[in-house]
Amino acid sequence: MFNLICKPRSVKSIDLSLGVPQRLSAKLPMLDLQIGDYANPRGASELIGEIATRREVSEKQILITKGAIGAIDLIFRSYLKAGDIILLPRPVFPPFTYLAEFLGARVEFYNSQIDLSEIENKLSNPRTKLILLNFPHNPTGRILSRTNAKNIANLMAKNKRVKFISDEVYCDFDYTQKNTSIRAFSEEGFVVRSMSKSFHAAGIRIGYIEAREELLKPIETLAESSVGAISSVDQAIATHLLKNFLFSPDEYKKARNLACEILDNNQIGYIYPYSGIFVCIKTECFQKVDESGIKVVDGKRFHGSEPFIRASFAVPDEIIRQGFSKISQIIKNGAQ
Question: Which domain of life is it from (predicted)?
Fold first, then answer.
């Protein structure tokens, strides 16, 4: 088993910008590996088997990828062409927009708070080919209710040309236990997950796609031709983590509560994060916060409709206290 400990970090630099869980770390034992041969382009059989067992699907429904963003890239390149429309949630994780526009596809946004009439209208456009559901949502921490997941699946059933991509990277950081994957109601799309968040293993860049075998075939062909095999070492580490790492979101829920308590005590507005590792703080003070030495992400990068900064609470308590208190003071001073 892994020994999980709080990571000591310098308080000289307050970095709340990264999407990497930093409150815990795992000590990895040496692994006995054979690295002289190329790995299977679909992924190591042992790793695929572990994932398929956990997900209760056939091994033929799993494809190992270079992280979650590598999975998204492969799906986009396999199922989007110039002029096609893809629906993305607003605010949106920036790489999704870049990847789609690079292919010449047209991005249309829908509200991540879910307006079913808006989604129905956009799905009905014959040029719409994909809808990406990023829940638990980055950056806001919103979740997808069971009712909304079912209703979106029903709307897709009326527009069979449209496939879903369910980006579930933060699935284990759901503090409500109420987030629902659209996969519970439809098989017409792709589930994307990774080892980066729940397994505290962003460095190994291992993700996977889960989908019906026939939907995976064009992606497998593209992956074999363009990406090749994923590192055998990374896959062996991922397999070991799946067998030995037990994750609980409790440590991050406590961190979320601490960050929100500081903001509440200072009467600072924010979007309440039901999941994930970020707080979207409602402010136009990004430049002042940045100049103060606190690293956060400007909400403009997420194509949000209102100004905010994204701050991570996946850091030690002392960093949370210093960072969120200082941000609160900057915002209050700016309002005077």
Answer: Bacteria
Give tens-digit pLDDT for 243-273: 998 889 999 999 999 999 999 999 999 999 9
What pTM was estimated for this model as a whole?
0.91
Convert 231-254 to b/e letters by CB count within 10 Å (16 or more is b). bbebbbbbbbbbeebebebeebbe
List where CATH 3.40.640.10 sits in the chain. Answer: 45-244
All residue ranges of the chain with pLDDT < 50 are 1-11
Class of domain 14-18+248-335: alpha beta
Q: What contacts 323, CB < 8 A, 6 or more positions away?
A: 14, 16, 294, 311, 315
The residue type of 245 is F
- Fold entry, domain 45-244: Aspartate Aminotransferase; domain 2 (3.40.640)
Whose tokens are 């088997």? That residue is 49
Q: Are strands 128-134 and 85-90 parallel, antiparallel or unpaired?
A: parallel
SS3 sequence of 87-130: EEEECCCHHHHHHHHHCCCEEEEEECCCCHHHHHHHHCCCCEEE
CA distances from 155 to 182, 210, 270 (A): 12, 21, 31
